[in-house]
Amino acid sequence: MDFGTLAQSLTDWVVRIGSSVNDLPGTAAFGLGLFTWFAVEQILRRVVSGLRWVIIVGAIIALGLTVPYLASFLIDWGGEAARA
Question: CA geometry: angle at 83 spanning 79 and 84, to 5°?
Answer without folding.
Answer: 120
